[in-house]
Amino acid sequence: MSDTRNVWVFVEQDGGAVADVSLELLGKGRELADRLESELHAVLCGSSVDGLAGALIAQGADLVLLADHAELEPYRTLPYARVIADLVEERKPYVVLFGATAVGRDLAPRVASALRTGLTADCTDLQIGDYESKKEKTLYKDLLLQIRPAFGGNLIATIVNPKGRPQMASVREGVMKKAAADPARSGRVERVLPRFEEGDFALKVISREKRESTVRLKESNVIVAGGAGVAGPAEFDLLRELAQVLAGEVGASRAAVDAGLAHHDHQVGQTGVTVRPRLYIAAGISGAIQHRAGMDESNKIIAINTDPDAPIFQIADYRIVGDLAEIVPMLVAALREKAK
Fold first, then answer.
1. 126-185 pLDDT tens trace
2. Contact yes or no for 223/217 (Cβ under 8 A)
3. Would the CA dihedral through 277, 172, 146, 24 be positive or negative?
4. N or C end of the chain: smaller count of CB under 10 Å?
5. 3-class secondary structure per residue, the chain
6. Crossing angle of helices 233-245/324-339, nearest 10°?
7. CATH number of 222-339
8. What is the tens place of the pLDDT at every residue in 71-100?
9. So what's the pLDDT on residue 153?
10. Dihedrals φ, ψ of 219, to 5°?
11. What is the CATH number of domain 7-201?
């Protein structure tokens, strides 16, 4: 594939509502495109979704590639993969970004396979930079630096794709900050005609059921989260009580979720939700990289742990060494006394 320098964002929508992760990626895509002195293109697929184009331009897109077809609603893997792969083959973008949602995790690998290019999943940062191959004695300029935890979270890896195009990555919701919309921005909308094959419709959707999560971790100003150091359900109930007193939400590390102490909807970290509350209380959480990636931009962090050398203390603003079973009830009592 020949190189152009444009950055593409696949815009995920359901029933005419754009996914938050797509709006967040448009903000990051705008930043990358500006660094490359190129354009940001939003790829929007669906049926009767042309009304969304203006919002995408306001979020930073220079061009909206609109594939509007009855067969693109609801989402099915093969028709969507056909549209995206055909567009990439024809227009040859430099970077293509997907949200690491259920749809993105289904679609992005299939597109990457069809294009025979690489894909880095669940990135925590994306930058433009240079890479020098000592083996080839070649300097590759302006590559997409795809940054994510690796080797069980023991290090942060920067992954590059010097030769394959496009450079593809997926990012989870909440990792990137959504830029403020600018209704005065001007942009273009181009309708594209999808080309399908008979095999693309092997799967037919008979019915759909959706479950909306009642957990609002991303919107909460206060989160009280528990980890592997929580001894059991009774101790986790203490965290729920503290969250209730603070009018906050309850979070959890993956270890707590795996132990059955909390539902996955409450999970914060690399494989959960990324949050930026005003106050984050980490109780019994050691602070592995995977968890810190989801909460280290919190405004204030209070950590409670029996281990004075726990990694969570490295990023905490306030450090409490002790047993959460003793400390949390003291915090609850003090807060209730103050509220009288």
1. 999 999 988 888 999 999 999 987 776 667 889 999 988 999 999 988 888 889 999 999
2. yes
3. negative
4. C
5. CCCCCCEEEEECEECCEECHHHHHHHHHHHHHHHHHCCCEEEEEEECCCHHHHHHHHHCCCCEEEEEECHHHCCCCHHHHHHHHHHHHHHHCCCEEEEECCHHHHHHHHHHHHHHCCCEEEEECEEEEEEEEECCCCEEEEEEEEEEEEECCCCEEEEECCCCCCCEEEEECCCCCCCCCCCCCCCCEEEECCCCCCHHHHCCCCCCCCCCCCCCCCCCCCEEEEECCCCCCHHHHHHHHHHHHHCCCEEEECHHHHHCCCCCHHHEECCCCECCCCCEEEEECCCCCHHHHCCCCCCCEEEEEECCCCCHHHHCCCEEEECCHHHHHHHHHHHHHHHHC
6. 20
7. 3.40.50.1220
8. 999 999 999 999 999 999 999 999 999 999
9. 62
10. -90, -10
11. 3.40.50.620
Question: Which two structure tokens, joined as six digits, stand for 144?
Answer: 């997409």
pLDDT digit string, tens, across residues 207-225? 888 777 778 898 899 999 9
**Nearest-5° angle of CA 129, CA 133, CA 139?**
55
| Tokens at 56, concatenated | 């995408």
Fold: same for 7-201 and 222-339: yes
Torsion of CA 59, 64, 69, 71, to 10 degrees: -60
HEC letters along 18-78:
ECHHHHHHHHHHHHHHHHHCCCEEEEEEECCCHHHHHHHHHCCCCEEEEEECHHHCCCCHH
- Residue 291's contacts (CB-CB under 8 Å, 6 or more residues apart) are 227, 253, 254, 268, 269, 270, 285, 312
Q: What is the pLDDT of residue 103?
A: 95
Could you tell me the residue ranges of all domains in the chain?
7-201, 222-339
